[in-house]
Design brief:
alpha+beta; Aminopeptidase; Elongation Factor Tu (Ef-tu), domain 3; 2 domains; 8-stranded mixed β-sheet; 6-stranded antiparallel barrel; 17 strands; globular
Protein backbone atom coordinates (compact mmCIF):
# COMPACT_ATOMS: atom_id res chain seq x y z
CA UNK A 1 0.00 0.00 0.00
CA UNK A 2 1.35 3.42 -0.94
CA UNK A 3 2.12 5.72 1.97
CA UNK A 4 -0.43 8.32 0.80
CA UNK A 5 -3.19 5.68 0.62
CA UNK A 6 -2.29 4.39 4.09
CA UNK A 7 -2.50 7.87 5.62
CA UNK A 8 -5.91 8.41 3.99
CA UNK A 9 -7.27 5.10 5.31
CA UNK A 10 -5.97 5.81 8.80
CA UNK A 11 -7.62 9.23 8.68
CA UNK A 12 -10.92 7.74 7.52
CA UNK A 13 -10.88 5.07 10.24
CA UNK A 14 -10.75 7.78 12.91
CA UNK A 15 -13.79 9.60 11.58
CA UNK A 16 -16.87 9.65 13.80
CA UNK A 17 -19.02 9.88 10.66
CA UNK A 18 -20.11 6.80 8.73
CA UNK A 19 -21.63 6.12 5.30
CA UNK A 20 -25.17 6.68 6.58
CA UNK A 21 -24.04 10.02 8.01
CA UNK A 22 -22.65 11.14 4.68
CA UNK A 23 -25.70 9.92 2.74
CA UNK A 24 -27.95 11.87 5.09
CA UNK A 25 -25.75 14.97 4.79
CA UNK A 26 -25.91 14.91 0.99
CA UNK A 27 -29.68 14.31 0.86
CA UNK A 28 -30.40 16.87 3.54
CA UNK A 29 -28.33 19.63 1.93
CA UNK A 30 -29.68 18.96 -1.56
CA UNK A 31 -33.27 19.22 -0.31
CA UNK A 32 -34.81 22.69 -0.30
CA UNK A 33 -35.80 24.15 3.06
CA UNK A 34 -36.65 27.83 2.50
CA UNK A 35 -37.65 30.03 5.41
CA UNK A 36 -41.31 29.49 6.21
CA UNK A 37 -41.46 26.38 4.01
CA UNK A 38 -39.16 23.98 5.85
CA UNK A 39 -41.52 20.98 5.95
CA UNK A 40 -39.74 18.59 3.56
CA UNK A 41 -36.37 19.22 5.17
CA UNK A 42 -37.79 18.66 8.62
CA UNK A 43 -39.28 15.34 7.52
CA UNK A 44 -35.85 14.18 6.33
CA UNK A 45 -34.23 15.30 9.56
CA UNK A 46 -36.79 13.59 11.80
CA UNK A 47 -36.60 10.39 9.78
CA UNK A 48 -32.84 10.27 10.35
CA UNK A 49 -32.85 10.94 14.10
CA UNK A 50 -35.84 8.80 15.11
CA UNK A 51 -33.70 5.69 15.85
CA UNK A 52 -31.61 7.73 18.28
CA UNK A 53 -34.32 9.44 20.37
CA UNK A 54 -37.13 8.48 22.74
CA UNK A 55 -39.76 10.91 21.51
CA UNK A 56 -40.28 13.85 19.16
CA UNK A 57 -42.72 16.63 18.35
CA UNK A 58 -43.16 19.44 15.84
CA UNK A 59 -44.60 22.84 16.74
CA UNK A 60 -47.18 24.87 14.82
CA UNK A 61 -44.61 26.57 12.57
CA UNK A 62 -42.45 23.51 11.88
CA UNK A 63 -39.65 23.48 14.44
CA UNK A 64 -38.77 19.81 14.95
CA UNK A 65 -37.63 18.46 18.32
CA UNK A 66 -36.17 15.07 19.19
CA UNK A 67 -36.16 14.20 22.89
CA UNK A 68 -33.99 11.84 24.92
CA UNK A 69 -35.16 11.08 28.47
CA UNK A 70 -38.33 13.18 28.14
CA UNK A 71 -39.57 12.67 31.72
CA UNK A 72 -36.57 14.35 33.35
CA UNK A 73 -37.42 17.70 34.97
CA UNK A 74 -34.03 19.32 34.16
CA UNK A 75 -33.94 20.17 30.45
CA UNK A 76 -30.86 20.70 28.29
CA UNK A 77 -31.31 21.87 24.72
CA UNK A 78 -28.98 21.70 21.71
CA UNK A 79 -30.10 23.63 18.66
CA UNK A 80 -29.47 24.54 15.04
CA UNK A 81 -31.73 26.22 12.50
CA UNK A 82 -33.27 24.44 9.54
CA UNK A 83 -34.14 27.22 7.12
CA UNK A 84 -32.29 28.52 4.08
CA UNK A 85 -32.41 31.91 2.42
CA UNK A 86 -34.58 32.11 -0.69
CA UNK A 87 -36.71 34.43 -2.82
CA UNK A 88 -40.41 35.13 -3.33
CA UNK A 89 -42.16 35.76 -6.62
CA UNK A 90 -43.10 39.44 -6.25
CA UNK A 91 -44.26 40.71 -9.65
CA UNK A 92 -44.98 39.05 -12.99
CA UNK A 93 -44.73 41.28 -16.07
CA UNK A 94 -47.13 41.11 -18.99
CA UNK A 95 -44.36 39.64 -21.16
CA UNK A 96 -43.64 36.81 -18.71
CA UNK A 97 -40.64 37.95 -16.66
CA UNK A 98 -40.62 37.63 -12.88
CA UNK A 99 -39.29 40.08 -10.31
CA UNK A 100 -38.48 38.87 -6.82
CA UNK A 101 -38.41 39.81 -3.16
CA UNK A 102 -35.93 38.48 -0.58
CA UNK A 103 -36.90 35.78 1.92
CA UNK A 104 -34.10 36.16 4.44
CA UNK A 105 -30.65 37.51 3.61
CA UNK A 106 -30.54 36.54 -0.07
CA UNK A 107 -27.69 38.14 -2.02
CA UNK A 108 -28.79 39.98 -5.16
CA UNK A 109 -25.15 40.34 -6.27
CA UNK A 110 -24.77 36.62 -7.01
CA UNK A 111 -28.16 36.12 -8.66
CA UNK A 112 -27.48 36.82 -12.38
CA UNK A 113 -27.06 33.58 -14.42
CA UNK A 114 -28.13 31.35 -11.51
CA UNK A 115 -30.55 28.48 -12.12
CA UNK A 116 -33.48 28.25 -9.71
CA UNK A 117 -36.43 26.11 -8.69
CA UNK A 118 -39.79 27.85 -8.30
CA UNK A 119 -41.90 25.86 -5.84
CA UNK A 120 -45.55 25.66 -6.89
CA UNK A 121 -48.57 23.52 -6.04
CA UNK A 122 -48.01 21.79 -9.39
CA UNK A 123 -44.40 20.98 -8.56
CA UNK A 124 -41.01 22.51 -9.36
CA UNK A 125 -40.79 24.96 -12.25
CA UNK A 126 -37.30 25.67 -13.58
CA UNK A 127 -36.15 29.22 -14.25
CA UNK A 128 -33.00 31.32 -14.57
CA UNK A 129 -31.91 34.72 -13.38
CA UNK A 130 -31.28 36.44 -16.72
CA UNK A 131 -28.73 39.17 -17.34
CA UNK A 132 -27.70 41.23 -20.41
CA UNK A 133 -24.66 39.88 -22.29
CA UNK A 134 -21.27 41.54 -21.80
CA UNK A 135 -21.34 42.62 -25.46
CA UNK A 136 -24.25 44.98 -24.96
CA UNK A 137 -23.18 46.57 -21.68
CA UNK A 138 -21.45 49.92 -21.98
CA UNK A 139 -18.04 49.99 -20.26
CA UNK A 140 -17.96 52.36 -17.31
CA UNK A 141 -21.75 52.55 -17.18
CA UNK A 142 -22.61 49.00 -16.22
CA UNK A 143 -25.44 48.48 -13.76
CA UNK A 144 -24.76 46.38 -10.67
CA UNK A 145 -27.37 43.74 -9.79
CA UNK A 146 -30.10 45.11 -7.50
CA UNK A 147 -33.62 44.07 -6.54
CA UNK A 148 -34.82 46.58 -9.12
CA UNK A 149 -33.15 44.90 -12.09
CA UNK A 150 -32.63 41.18 -11.40
CA UNK A 151 -35.37 39.05 -12.92
CA UNK A 152 -36.36 35.46 -13.62
CA UNK A 153 -37.01 33.94 -17.02
CA UNK A 154 -38.98 30.69 -17.03
CA UNK A 155 -39.31 30.47 -20.81
CA UNK A 156 -42.70 32.11 -21.05
CA UNK A 157 -43.77 35.05 -23.21
CA UNK A 158 -46.90 36.16 -21.35
CA UNK A 159 -48.10 36.54 -17.79
CA UNK A 160 -50.90 34.06 -18.49
CA UNK A 161 -48.37 31.44 -19.62
CA UNK A 162 -46.41 31.94 -16.38
CA UNK A 163 -49.55 31.55 -14.28
CA UNK A 164 -50.57 28.41 -16.16
CA UNK A 165 -47.35 26.79 -14.87
CA UNK A 166 -48.69 27.32 -11.34
CA UNK A 167 -46.54 30.36 -10.57
CA UNK A 168 -48.13 33.16 -8.58
CA UNK A 169 -47.04 35.98 -6.29
CA UNK A 170 -45.74 34.39 -3.09
CA UNK A 171 -44.24 31.25 -4.64
CA UNK A 172 -40.89 30.58 -3.04
CA UNK A 173 -37.70 30.25 -5.09
CA UNK A 174 -34.46 28.39 -4.26
CA UNK A 175 -31.20 27.89 -6.11
CA UNK A 176 -30.69 24.43 -7.57
CA UNK A 177 -26.96 24.18 -6.72
CA UNK A 178 -26.12 20.85 -5.07
CA UNK A 179 -23.69 19.45 -2.52
CA UNK A 180 -20.11 18.55 -3.40
CA UNK A 181 -16.80 17.83 -1.65
CA UNK A 182 -13.82 20.01 -2.57
CA UNK A 183 -10.36 18.39 -2.49
CA UNK A 184 -11.63 15.78 -0.01
CA UNK A 185 -11.43 18.57 2.57
CA UNK A 186 -14.40 20.93 2.31
CA UNK A 187 -18.14 20.28 2.21
CA UNK A 188 -19.57 22.74 -0.32
CA UNK A 189 -23.13 23.70 -1.18
CA UNK A 190 -25.93 26.16 -0.71
CA UNK A 191 -27.54 26.53 2.70
CA UNK A 192 -24.84 24.98 4.84
CA UNK A 193 -25.99 27.96 6.90
CA UNK A 194 -27.35 26.26 8.84
CA UNK A 195 -28.51 22.84 7.75
CA UNK A 196 -24.96 21.68 8.48
CA UNK A 197 -25.91 22.56 12.07
CA UNK A 198 -28.97 20.33 11.87
CA UNK A 199 -26.69 17.58 10.59
CA UNK A 200 -24.25 18.06 13.48
CA UNK A 201 -26.86 17.91 16.25
CA UNK A 202 -28.36 14.83 14.59
CA UNK A 203 -24.91 13.22 14.71
CA UNK A 204 -24.66 14.09 18.41
CA UNK A 205 -27.90 12.14 18.92
CA UNK A 206 -26.40 9.20 17.04
CA UNK A 207 -23.21 9.26 19.14
CA UNK A 208 -25.24 9.31 22.34
CA UNK A 209 -27.23 6.26 21.24
CA UNK A 210 -24.31 4.26 19.86
CA UNK A 211 -22.06 4.95 22.87
CA UNK A 212 -24.94 4.06 25.22
CA UNK A 213 -24.37 7.31 27.08
CA UNK A 214 -26.97 8.08 29.74
CA UNK A 215 -27.78 11.57 30.94
CA UNK A 216 -29.50 12.50 34.21
CA UNK A 217 -31.39 15.24 32.36
CA UNK A 218 -33.76 15.48 29.42
CA UNK A 219 -32.02 16.34 26.16
CA UNK A 220 -33.98 18.32 23.54
CA UNK A 221 -32.45 18.24 20.06
CA UNK A 222 -34.01 21.20 18.28
CA UNK A 223 -34.02 22.06 14.58
CA UNK A 224 -35.62 25.51 14.52
CA UNK A 225 -37.36 27.30 11.68
CA UNK A 226 -37.25 30.95 10.58
CA UNK A 227 -33.86 31.97 11.97
CA UNK A 228 -33.07 33.86 8.78
CA UNK A 229 -35.95 36.29 9.36
CA UNK A 230 -35.37 37.17 13.01
CA UNK A 231 -34.74 34.05 15.13
CA UNK A 232 -38.47 33.38 15.19
CA UNK A 233 -38.47 29.59 15.50
CA UNK A 234 -36.13 29.70 18.49
CA UNK A 235 -38.23 32.46 20.04
CA UNK A 236 -41.31 30.23 19.84
CA UNK A 237 -39.80 26.89 20.89
CA UNK A 238 -38.11 28.22 24.01
CA UNK A 239 -41.57 29.09 25.33
CA UNK A 240 -42.70 25.52 24.66
CA UNK A 241 -39.75 23.61 26.11
CA UNK A 242 -38.65 26.07 28.81
CA UNK A 243 -35.09 24.70 28.88
CA UNK A 244 -32.69 25.09 31.80
CA UNK A 245 -29.65 25.22 29.49
CA UNK A 246 -29.23 25.89 25.76
CA UNK A 247 -26.22 25.13 23.53
CA UNK A 248 -26.63 26.56 20.05
CA UNK A 249 -24.60 25.80 16.95
CA UNK A 250 -24.46 28.00 13.87
CA UNK A 251 -21.87 29.16 11.34
CA UNK A 252 -19.48 32.10 11.51
CA UNK A 253 -17.16 33.70 8.96
CA UNK A 254 -13.86 32.11 7.99
CA UNK A 255 -11.79 35.25 7.38
CA UNK A 256 -8.80 33.80 5.51
CA UNK A 257 -10.11 34.09 1.94
CA UNK A 258 -9.56 37.22 -0.20
CA UNK A 259 -11.59 40.37 0.50
CA UNK A 260 -12.32 39.38 4.11
CA UNK A 261 -11.37 41.80 6.89
CA UNK A 262 -9.86 40.31 10.04
CA UNK A 263 -10.21 43.69 11.72
CA UNK A 264 -13.96 43.67 11.12
CA UNK A 265 -14.70 39.96 11.47
CA UNK A 266 -11.88 38.45 13.57
CA UNK A 267 -9.08 36.04 12.71
CA UNK A 268 -10.94 32.77 12.13
CA UNK A 269 -9.62 29.77 10.20
CA UNK A 270 -11.40 26.82 8.63
CA UNK A 271 -9.75 23.65 9.88
CA UNK A 272 -8.62 25.04 13.23
CA UNK A 273 -11.67 23.99 15.20
CA UNK A 274 -15.01 25.23 16.56
CA UNK A 275 -15.36 28.90 17.45
CA UNK A 276 -16.52 29.85 20.96
CA UNK A 277 -18.09 33.27 21.28
CA UNK A 278 -17.78 35.78 24.11
CA UNK A 279 -20.63 38.26 24.38
CA UNK A 280 -23.51 39.48 26.55
CA UNK A 281 -25.88 36.69 25.41
CA UNK A 282 -23.34 33.97 26.24
CA UNK A 283 -23.56 32.81 29.85
CA UNK A 284 -20.04 32.79 31.27
CA UNK A 285 -20.31 29.69 33.46
CA UNK A 286 -21.71 27.62 30.59
CA UNK A 287 -19.00 28.93 28.30
CA UNK A 288 -16.34 27.90 30.84
CA UNK A 289 -17.84 24.40 30.98
CA UNK A 290 -17.56 24.12 27.19
CA UNK A 291 -13.98 25.44 27.16
CA UNK A 292 -13.03 22.93 29.87
CA UNK A 293 -14.66 20.14 27.85
CA UNK A 294 -12.61 21.17 24.81
CA UNK A 295 -9.35 21.27 26.76
CA UNK A 296 -9.99 18.02 28.62
CA UNK A 297 -10.74 16.19 25.37
CA UNK A 298 -7.99 17.83 23.33
CA UNK A 299 -10.41 19.50 20.91
CA UNK A 300 -8.85 22.56 19.31
CA UNK A 301 -11.03 25.65 19.38
CA UNK A 302 -10.97 29.31 18.42
CA UNK A 303 -12.43 32.39 20.09
CA UNK A 304 -14.59 35.22 18.83
CA UNK A 305 -16.14 38.30 20.39
CA UNK A 306 -19.70 39.50 19.73
CA UNK A 307 -20.88 43.03 20.36
CA UNK A 308 -24.51 43.68 21.26
CA UNK A 309 -25.73 40.37 19.84
CA UNK A 310 -24.40 37.14 18.36
CA UNK A 311 -26.83 37.35 15.45
CA UNK A 312 -27.82 33.73 16.05
CA UNK A 313 -30.56 31.83 17.86
CA UNK A 314 -28.39 32.14 20.98
CA UNK A 315 -29.89 35.59 21.49
CA UNK A 316 -33.46 34.25 21.38
CA UNK A 317 -32.79 31.57 24.00
CA UNK A 318 -30.63 33.74 26.27
CA UNK A 319 -33.21 36.49 26.64
CA UNK A 320 -36.31 34.34 27.05
CA UNK A 321 -38.32 33.10 30.06
CA UNK A 322 -36.25 35.00 32.60
CA UNK A 323 -32.91 34.19 30.95
CA UNK A 324 -31.76 30.73 29.83
CA UNK A 325 -28.02 30.03 30.31
CA UNK A 326 -26.94 29.84 26.67
CA UNK A 327 -23.73 29.43 24.69
CA UNK A 328 -22.74 29.33 21.03
CA UNK A 329 -20.48 26.81 19.31
CA UNK A 330 -19.84 28.06 15.78
CA UNK A 331 -18.55 26.38 12.64
CA UNK A 332 -16.18 28.46 10.44
CA UNK A 333 -17.67 28.90 6.97
CA UNK A 334 -16.47 30.51 3.75
CA UNK A 335 -18.70 32.46 1.34
CA UNK A 336 -21.78 32.79 3.56
CA UNK A 337 -25.15 33.26 1.83
CA UNK A 338 -23.79 32.14 -1.53
CA UNK A 339 -24.40 28.84 -3.31
CA UNK A 340 -20.84 27.67 -2.56
CA UNK A 341 -20.77 27.91 1.22
CA UNK A 342 -17.79 25.83 2.37
CA UNK A 343 -16.84 24.21 5.69
CA UNK A 344 -13.85 22.08 6.65
CA UNK A 345 -14.66 18.43 7.31
CA UNK A 346 -12.48 18.36 10.45
CA UNK A 347 -14.33 21.34 11.93
CA UNK A 348 -17.66 19.58 11.41
CA UNK A 349 -16.44 16.53 13.32
CA UNK A 350 -14.94 18.63 16.10
CA UNK A 351 -18.15 20.63 16.61
CA UNK A 352 -20.00 17.31 16.99
CA UNK A 353 -17.39 16.07 19.48
CA UNK A 354 -17.43 19.30 21.47
CA UNK A 355 -21.22 19.36 21.83
CA UNK A 356 -21.16 15.69 22.90
CA UNK A 357 -18.38 16.19 25.45
CA UNK A 358 -20.00 19.38 26.79
CA UNK A 359 -23.24 17.49 27.40
CA UNK A 360 -21.31 14.83 29.30
CA UNK A 361 -19.98 17.57 31.59
CA UNK A 362 -23.44 18.80 32.62
CA UNK A 363 -24.81 17.33 35.82
CA UNK A 364 -28.43 16.99 36.84
CA UNK A 365 -29.67 20.34 38.17
CA UNK A 366 -26.33 21.88 37.20
CA UNK A 367 -25.98 25.33 38.76
CA UNK A 368 -25.10 27.90 36.11
CA UNK A 369 -25.98 30.90 38.25
CA UNK A 370 -23.82 33.91 37.47
CA UNK A 371 -22.92 34.54 41.11
CA UNK A 372 -22.78 31.45 43.25
CA UNK A 373 -22.88 31.41 47.06
Amino acid sequence: MAKKEKIKKEKDSKSILNKDSHDFLRNYLNNASPTGFETEGQKLWLQYIKPYIDDYFVDNYGTAVGVINPDAPFKVLIEAHADEISWFVHYITNDGFIYVRKNGGSDHMIAPSKRVNIHTDKGIVKAVFGWPAIHVREAGKEEAPTLKNIFLDCGCSTKKEVEELGIHVGCVITYEDEFMILNDTYYVGRALDNRIGGFMIAEVARLIKESKTKFPFGLYIVNSVQEEVGLRGAEMITQTIKPNVAIITDVCHDTQSPMMSKIASGDIYSGKGPVLTYGPAVQNNLLKLIIDAAKNNKIDFQRAAASRATGTDTDAFAYSIGGVPSALISLPLRYMHTTVESVHKNDVENVIKLIFQSLKSIKNNHDFKYIKK
